[in-house]
Structures are given as C-alpha cells and as structure tokens.
Write a structure and sequence with these properties.
It is built from 15 helices and 23 strands. By secondary structure, the chain is of the alpha+beta class. The chain folds into four domains: 7-26 and 444-606, Up-down Bundle (Multidrug efflux transporter AcrB transmembrane fold); 32-107, Alpha-Beta Plaits (2-Layer Sandwich); 140-221, 2-Layer Sandwich (Hypothetical Protein, Haloacid Dehalogenase-like Hydrolase, Chain: A, domain 2), CATH 3.30.1240.20; 278-442, Gyrase A, domain 2 (2-Layer Sandwich). The strands form seven sheets. It has a four-stranded antiparallel sheet, covered by helices on one side. α2 (48-60) crosses α3 (85-95) and α12 crosses α13 (505-534).
Length: 616
C-alpha cells in the first residue's frame, strides 16, 4: 500500500524525537550568576562560621542569594541577579584572607532528573558566555639563554669524554666562552666542538693559560630558535587548555613574540592563570661529590625547606621535555607523588646516568619563571615596571638504588593539588621559553546576554518568515513543514548539547542559515508533488513519486554543503569552526526531518485513504 510506514519506522522516529526533546530541555534552564570561593593552595577549607559571615555580609548589602552550595572544599554562592556578581565578589573577598580565591562563575541549574540522564545545556562561546582573555609575551632572551645552557652542558660532556681540560665556562648574551690551560687544548676543543655544533661562529682570544674559545650563535640560528620557541609554546598551551577541559578555546600567535589565549566560560582567572601561565619545568641532576670543582657545581635550596640546600652538578641529565606521560597518585604512606614515563631518548640518558652512579644521590630540581611588578620613579612620575625572576628549588633528593629506565616516580611534593598540577604541566609539555602576562581581562556575562538576546531574536524572525511563507504557499503541507522545522531546531540543539559543541555568534548564524535551508528539501518535494498531480497521477501516486524523485536532488545538494562545512572546520579556527559545526549538524537534522518526519506526518494524514484533492 502506498504512503504507509511500517510500525517500527514510526517508533524509531518517535524515539529520536523524544530523545531530542529530553536532551534539548536543559537549555531552557539558564545558568545562575555565582561567586565561587576556593582554596588558593588546595589546603584551606571554608568552615560554617565563614559561610555565615558571607551570608550576613551579602544580606546586609541587599544582595539576593539564591543558594549556597559547599562541596569538595569550595563554596558556590548562587545569586538572583547578574548585576550583583561583582559587588558580591568584592564583599566576599574582604571577608576572607589570601588563602582563598574568590572568582566569578556561572553555575548550572539543570534539574537533577535531567542530570541523571547526562543531559546538559550547550556550551556557550566567549562572545556569548563571557570568559577570560590573556595576552602572553614570550621571553625570547630567556629562550636563548636556556638553549645556550643546554649547548654548554653538552660541550662540557664532549670535552670530558675526550679528556680535554678546560677551566671555566661563561654565557653572555649570544656567546659561550670557555677558558683552556693552553692554546693546544683550545685548538683540539675547537676542532671537536665545531663539527657537533655548527650553529656557532668560533673565535680565539688570548694565549697560554688565558686561551679562550668564544662561540657566538649565528643570526639564522637565533631566528630559528625564536620561531621554535613560539611554536612550541603554542603547542604546549593548547595541550594545557585541553587538559583544563575548556570547549573551543582560542590559542594563536600575535606578532613576533606574543600569544593570545581566550577561554570561554572561565570566570576563575586565578586558576586559569595558574595552569596556562605556569612555566614550571624539571631538571634531573646528580648531587656533586665533595671533590667536584666549584665551577662545575651549583647550590640550590630545598623547595619545602629553604634552610636546607644541596650542591648539584651543573650538567643536566634530562629535563621535563623528555617526559612522555605523567599522572599523580599516592605512595604507600599516603603522600602525593607523580608517576613519570620518559620517551626513548630520555629513558636512555636516565639509564646511562644512573647505571654508573648507583649509591649516589640524584636531585629533582623544580624550576619556575615568574614576574612581579614594581613601581619606579621616572622624571618625577611613578612608572610600573615588570621584573622577571626565576625560582629554583629541590623537591626530591634520593639515593640511586639501581639503574632507572623509562618509568619512575617523584616524591616530596607538598599537596595532592601540587602533584596534580605538576603532572598536568609535564603531561602537556614544557614551555620552550618563559611567558608573562602582558594583558588579562575578564569578559563579563552581561555582554554575552545581549548577544544571546539579539541572536535569539534573529532566529525567531527567520523562523517566522519561513513559517509564514510555507503556510501561504503550501497550506496543509506547509503546516507539516513548519512542525518539522521546529523539530529540526530541537534536534539541532539536542545534538549540540550531547556532543558538547560550543555555540558562538557565528554558530547562531549557522542556525539561522539551517532554518532557511531546512525547508529547501520540503520545497523540492512539494513542488515535485504538484508537478506529478498536473501530469494526471492520483494523489497517492503523486505523493509517492514526489518523495522518491526529489530524494536524489536533496541528498546531492546537502552533501555538497556538508563537504564545505567539513572543509571549513578542518582549516578554520575559533568562530569559523563554530559556524561549521552548527551548519554540519543542522544539515544532518534537516535531512532527517525533511525526508522522514514530514513523510511520516503525510503518511499518517493521507496514507491508505481515498483522497481526491490535496491542499498543497
């Protein structure tokens, strides 16, 4: 019989539509403006007395509180009004000390029964939800100094392996200089080193006991190093942001030495800065023997006890760059630790160093580059200058019991939070050069609310125009198309919510475009049915022929658009990807609603019935 679906197909359509309805519902529950209070170091806890003080302070300021949720060592204060967020944050910050971080947040308000089904609202982009914007500056001078330190260490190891004596090593600007006991040793060293390190220009200075070999890095090598530092930092920052779980972040280069990072939905700038801007790295070094010359050793304090210190070899066994994976856990005594796996080269170097030094101590040196602002007077005016500095501290000094390989663990950490952050930084990769925050700003949700309101208005206007055209042009069939259009929008929102896709302003543009394209298939089908009726076919035959003969054209047209959307997603960034994702999902849901949902409604209305005239 023409125009009849089997029962299983009707049930399938019903299940898909009900699923779409359920998973689109969370988007009807807007997020609550909130203030989040959390520990700055991971150890401080908020007690009941502090909670009551916060409640009283906000009530005295006539700030309406919707709820106060305390969980997992943090306090989330939900507010009734967006305009109270900043005032509430400032008042809470006055009450608490520096052990706590007070930040703006947006709290989910999805009902528990929907959360039980793993239903959650769409993620909103920076232009809609707000978030944080960082402008980072890469310290190229520090990148050059780090590279020279590594090269100098490798040069010293090469000279020692060939038993060529040297007296001292100095690094200044772009040069490495080494002093030898005589010109003959200097000549042998130059001949040996120049083959292994071609990125330097070599020059001799002085004679006899003052024979000095000066190695200056070439301009080309410096430029290559700077490009490498920027690109490596971009990769590392993207990995860190992915570890944070931020949807559709923006991490891109700006100019010769700057990087822009945008994190949609993140209101806690302190936590974001701690992870994104951290320049922590590790160095593994042997402890110096008592008879080691002073020029080959360096003294460092212990990170958790600055009254203690140890003398370490200047040569580095490996750095955090050799770490392939890292995760945090607890040792047999319940203390935090980081489990580390090294790559092939790192494992070989570690095995070689520990195999020949069993019974000797090896230190794990924690290195962190920081900056601080200080005010100086210039021409009688106060000027804020940024001062950069580096902190180095030993977090572990243990005796080598046996040769180590690709896997081992680091202990001596202060807290589980520190262990987790160290594992994250090592897992995501170390920075090739220190970075400093040149600019930071929080984009409030008020701007996003205005954008959302205008975006929804554009969707509503587009939907109304399409509905009006379809009803006037195709009457009853236009009503079918209108219902399918609403279901298409519901499915589109549900799929984006289920996939965790991010909705941006370009994404809303993609939805508007989808609404216009969604009725294209119905227009083709309905016009084809009209043509078949004009050729003299019966109503049932015309409906059947209209859907079957328009199918190929519909699929071809949508596949072409889908391919374009895929290309946009693969080569685009940020807003372009948001538009491509929305458009791609919209094409798939449009095909389903146009070819199956409207056909089901037509079949239920006309299928198997004696119909003499169609209102189309």
């Amino acid at each position: 019989m023409l125009n009849r679906y089997p029962l299983w197909k009707y049930l399938l359509i019903l299940v898909v539509l009900l699923t779409g309805l359920i998973y689109s519902l969370p988007n009807l529950f807007p997020q609550d403006p909130a203030v989040q209070v959390s520990s700055a170091q991971g150890d401080a806890r908020i007690d009941e007395r502090q909670v009551e003080r916060i409640r009283s302070a906000l009530e005295d300021a006539d700030i309406a509180i919707k709820a106060m949720d305390a969980e997992e060592g943090r306090l989330l204060v939900r507010l009734e009004d967006d305009d109270d967020q900043l005032d509430a944050r400032d008042r809470i910050a006055e009450i608490l000390d520096e052990d706590f971080v007070v930040a703006l947040n947006l709290a989910e308000s999805t009902p528990s029964w929907l959360e039980g089904l793993s239903a959650s609202p769409m993620t909103l982009g920076l232009d809609l939800r707000g978030g944080v914007h960082f402008l980072l500056e890469v310290d190229m001078a520090a990148a050059l100094e780090q590279r020279l330190e590594v090269n100098a260490s490798a040069m010293r190891e090469t000279l020692r392996s060939e038993r060529i004596r040297y007296r001292d090593t100095e690094i200044d600007d772009r040069t490495i200089s080494m002093v030898f006991t005589n010109a003959e040793d200097r000549g042998q060293a130059r001949s040996l080193i120049s083959h292994e390190f071609p990125d330097f220009d070599y020059a001799n200075e002085g004679e006899d006991r003052g024979a000095r070999l000066v190695m200056t890095m070439t301009d080309q090598a410096v430029n290559e190093l700077q490009d490498y530092a920027i690109n490596q930092n971009l990769t590392t920052l993207r990995n860190r942001v992915n570890e944070l779980g931020v949807a559709e972040p923006l991490v891109q280069r700006q100019g010769p030495d700057r990087i822009v990072v945008e994190l949609p939905g993140v209101q806690d700038t302190t936590a974001a800065k701690r992870i994104v801007g951290a320049t922590a790295n590790l160095e593994f070094r042997l402890e110096a023997r008592p008879d080691t010359p002073d020029n080959e050793t360096q003294s460092f304090p212990f990170r958790n006890d600055e009254s203690r210190s140890a003398d370490l070899m200047r040569d580095v066994i490996i750095t955090g760059d050799s770490v392939s994976s890292a995760n945090h856990s607890f040792d047999e005594n319940g203390r935090p630790q980081v489990n580390i796996d090294l790559d092939g080269t790192g494992g070989t170097l570690m095995n070689r160093a520990t195999r020949t030094n069993i019974g000797r101590n090896m230190a794990v040196l924690f290195i962190e580059h920081k900056s601080r602002d200080r005010t100086v007077m210039e021409d009688g005016e106060p000027v804020v200058e940024r001062e950069t500095y580096t902190e180095r501290g030993i977090i572990s000094l243990a005796t080598i019991q046996s040769a180590l390989g690709n896997s081992f663990r680091i202990t001596g950490l202060d807290s589980p939070t520190e262990a987790a952050e160290l594992a994250l930084l090592l897992r995501s990769g170390s920075l090739a050069a220190p970075i400093y925050f040149a600019q930071e700003r929080t984009i409030g949700p008020s701007l996003g609310a205005e954008n959302i309101e205008r975006g929804l208005l554009s969707v509503q206007i587009g939907l109304l125009l399409v509905v009006a055209f379809m009803l006037v042009r195709y009457k009853v069939f236009g009503a079918f198309a209108t219902v399918a259009l609403g279901l298409n929008l519901t499915l589109l929102i549900a799929v984006m919510s289920m996939l965790g896709a991010t909705l941006t302003l370009p994404g809303i543009a993609g939805i508007v475009l989808t609404l216009g394209m969604a009725v294209d298939a119905n227009v083709l089908i309905f016009e084809r049915i009209r043509e078949e009726l004009r050729t003299g076919l019966s109503v049932q035959q015309a409906i059947q022929a209209g859907y079957e003969r328009a199918f190929t054209s519909i699929v071809d047209a949508n596949i072409t658009t889908l391919l374009v959307a895929v290309i946009l997603f693969s080569i685009g960034t940020g807003p372009v990807k948001g538009f491509a994702v929305t458009l791609s999902i919209g094409i798939l849901t449009s095909l389903f609603t146009a070819l199956m949902v409207t056909r089901a409604m037509v079949n239920l209305t006309y299928g198997g019935k004696p119909v003499k005239k169609l209102w189309i």
